[in-house]
Amino acid sequence: MPKTIPITKATDAQLRYYATTILGLDIHPMVSKRETILSKISAASDAAEITVPDEDLPDAPPARATQEQPTEIPAHDKPPVIVKIAITEAVDGEEAVPVSINGKAMLVPRGMWCEIPYPYYEGLRHAVEDRYEPLADGGMSTTPRQVSRYPFEVWVGDDEPREGVMRPPAQAA
């Protein structure tokens, strides 16, 4: 038998029940802050009292059954990558490229094969800029084209490049 209680006296489980079942709100199972659930309820309703079941409710919703996801290897555990950043026509096209990951920076020289830690490779791979191409009528395209900010090659052979590889200095533990 349902009961009506003041919203201020409701447990987290009762608030979640009211929000999802009575009001039909979508509250992610990972949301656990009482204030978050209360703010969603107050945005949908100005009720001072809520209706909940008489029996005790579980503290957290049951986990949804999901397909088993393949385990992704964290980037910091992946092997280093050998890259060669191209020298470009840009003003700074011959200077080393700064790559920062979580506040730690590394300068990667251009025009030579360098071994860099995998997270820095990911940072380099995601360094893109938008380019707007000229149109035949003299105007500019309004649709940007994403291009690599620092074009580079990746060494994928089993042996090292003939030119040798510059490796970063060993970091102190």
Please tally the β strands and state the result: 9
Q: Supply Rg.
A: 28 Å
Query: How many structural domains?
Result: 2
Helix content: 10-25%
Q: In percent, how much strand structure appears in the residues? A: 15-25%
Which shape, going by the Cα principal axes? elongated
Class from helix and strand fractions:
alpha+beta
Instruction: Walk across the major sheet and give the strand order.
Output: 6-3-9
Report the order of strands and helices. EHHEEEEEHEEE
Q: What is the distance, rounded to the nearest whole angstrom, between the alpha carbons of the first and last residues?
A: 62 Å
Q: What is the helix tally?
A: 3
User: Largest beta sheet, briefly?
Assistant: 3 strands, antiparallel
Question: What can you see in these coordinates?
Answer:
The protein has about 170 residues and is of the alpha+beta class. Helices cover about 15% and strands about 20% of the residues. The chain has 2 domains: about 50 residues; about 80 residues, no CATH class. The strands form 4 sheets. A 3-stranded antiparallel β-sheet has the order 6-3-9. The chain is elongated, with a radius of gyration of 28 Å. The model has no long low-confidence stretch (mean pLDDT about 80).
Q: Brief description of this entry?
A:
This protein has about 170 residues and is α+β, with helices and mostly antiparallel strands. The protein is built from three helices and nine strands; from the N terminus they run βααβββββαβββ.
